Amino acid sequence: MADYKDIIKGTLSNIAGKVKEVAASDTVQNFCCKVKEAAETGSVKEIYDKGASRAKAYSRIAKLTLEMNGESEELKRVYTEIGKLYYDQAKDAPEGFFAPLFNQVQEISAGILAKEEEINALKAEFEAQAAAKDIEVEVCAFDEVVDATESDGTNEAPADDKTEE
Known about the structure:
Blueprint: H1 4-24, H2 26-41, H3 43-90, H4 98-132, H5 142-154
């Protein structure tokens, strides 16, 4: 039987040897020299600086966009409040092009009230039914229910005995 520890050690030492060979090869050495040369010339720092400045710009754009959206929502809220206040002041005598809009508000409000009344009526009906407890539940064994259901379908009386196996 082979000793697995020796096999694993041998495999690891072979892998380590191959890694050392690749690290010592001309291709890796040339790559390392090129990276070192690029770092010394400042091109890597320049690329990093450009990337960092772009990230900051995108971050600022996102922040400003969020602030604009928040201010737009606040402006809509203010416009809505102005409209409500004007409606409350002029609802009895709307003027000009406001008259059809005021009629729409009255129609929509009437529809909302009708739906609220229907909801309240349904809730009251449910509460009355729950208080009356008009549903009776009979609890019995599962086998009795199955036997009764089977005999309903065949017009036979339920069997008192268990079926023979």
